[in-house]
Amino acid sequence: xxxxxxxxxxxxxxxxxxxxxxxxxxxxxxxxxxxxxxxxxxxxxxxxxxxxxxxxxxxxxxxxxxxxxxxxxxxxxxxxxxxxxxxxxxxxxxxxxxxxxxxxxxxxxxxxxxxxxxxxxxxxxxxxxxxxxxxxxxxxxxxxxxxxxxxxxxxxxxxxxxxxxxxxxxxxxxxxxxxxxxxxxxxxxxxxxxxxxxxxxxxxxxxxxxxxxxxxxxxxxxxx
Length: 224
Description:
The chain is α/β, with parallel strands linked by helices. The chain folds into two domains: 35-76; 87-219, Rossmann fold (3-Layer(aba) Sandwich), CATH 3.40.50. It has five helices and five strands, in the order αβαββαβαβα. 24% of the residues are buried.
């Protein structure tokens, strides 16, 4: 009686296995604390990675937007078209360079009888290009010496001569800004012909200049 059965399984009486590795008191708690500390260290790292990813994404979006706008409005700007223009206006056409030559070519091509050329004041003022039997040439000094002054002069000429259809020659990077400026003063139709800068360095300079001038036109100078 009371002895273990010969055929029964040995009963687990909770006696420790003498061959098992001893477990130090509090080891489980220490391991849990170490894991918690590692988690706390990884949390800020993950947050920094997320912030860095968001920042890089935002920078990429800004670069794409600014680059697309630059190409759209300063490299390949919309030029428009006008049937039977009444005059050709050359902005900043004070030398016998490509802008003035483009204006003369357009006047011949469209059989226009009025060519108007913006020139600077002072010692740099050149003589106005001579007229031809079929082309009247008028030069003017804009006030102020800017695209805004040129736009005001164009509106004044249009009122005097009754112009409603113009072709305006400017630098390619200036076309969009000139369109905005002229549209605030002159309310007829205007098409544009852009003359490209002379090289890569000139492209960069002109794009940056006209982007800054466009900001000025929209932030500080809303009127004609």
